[in-house]
Specification:
Blueprint: H1 3-44, H2 50-64, H3 66-74, H4 81-98, H5 105-108, H6 112-137, H7 147-162, H8 164-183, H9 188-211
Helix pairs in contact: 1-2, 1-6, 2-4, 3-4, 4-9, 6-7, 6-8, 8-9
């Protein structure tokens, strides 16, 4: 084996790991902030005003996830490119096309389904990104090599695979409800397009379920 070649690839591996570690850590913090804001706003101003306090943060945090398509295309992560593209683009459609334009937002963002969608997304992403952070890091710095560290990693792994059964249906039902509400105030041609989107949810989500995973 060529040792020179082995040494030359090591810095690239380290750079990739540090970049992915930073990306996942930032994403986990942003989604945790979204979750905290949604819960706080629900208790302070009620469900109809949640968007005003968290909408911009949610839109730009989700837009940051476009990088996951780039990661997949460049081979930085194991996620298949079609799966990453489907998941990210569907969320961008929800957050920008359904919950942002003046024509739809007054009918979608005051809905409880907007809050439930963000809660499902943020809980899912906090767990997912945290799992990747600890996987890339190789441990929990403050408790490295201890029983506490093993419990933390085990807990995050358990949450990643078990929260899914509650959060995934909650997220999908909330998304479909918001698209349906938007279709009720859309022009006839746009309404047909939104119904087509709803019809594609089943096959699209099945493909996501069959292929999703990997950092």
């Amino acid at each position: 084996m060529d040792r020179t070649s082995s040494y030359s690839t090591q810095p690239r591996r380290d750079l990739k790991t540090h970049y992915l570690l930073a990306y996942n850590l930032i994403s986990a913090i942003l989604w945790f902030a979204i979750l905290g804001r949604v819960l706080l706003l629900l208790s302070l101003v009620g469900v109809t005003h949640v968007s005003g306090g968290v909408g911009n943060l949610a839109r730009w945090t989700q837009t940051l996830a476009v990088l996951e398509i780039v990661h997949s295309a460049l081979g930085l992560v194991r996620s298949p490119l079609p799966t990453a593209t489907l998941q990210v683009s569907s969320r961008l459609f929800l957050i920008w096309a359904i919950c942002h334009p003046p024509s739809f937002a007054p009918h979608t963002t005051p809905s409880p389904f907007y809050s439930s969608m963000l809660i499902a997304w943020s809980l899912t992403e906090v767990v997912r990104y945290s799992y990747f952070v600890f996987s890339l890091r190789g441990g929990v710095p403050a408790f490295e090599g201890t029983e506490v560290e093993r419990m933390i990693l085990k807990g995050i792994g358990w949450a990643r695979y078990n929260f899914f059964y509650a959060l995934y249906p909650l997220g999908i039902c909330s998304e479909c409800a918001l698209v349906w509400k938007a279709s009720m105030v859309a022009s006839p041609w746009v309404r047909v397009g939104l119904w087509a989107v709803l019809g594609a949810y089943g096959p699209g989500e099945w493909k996501f379920l069959s292929e999703a995973d990997g950092v």
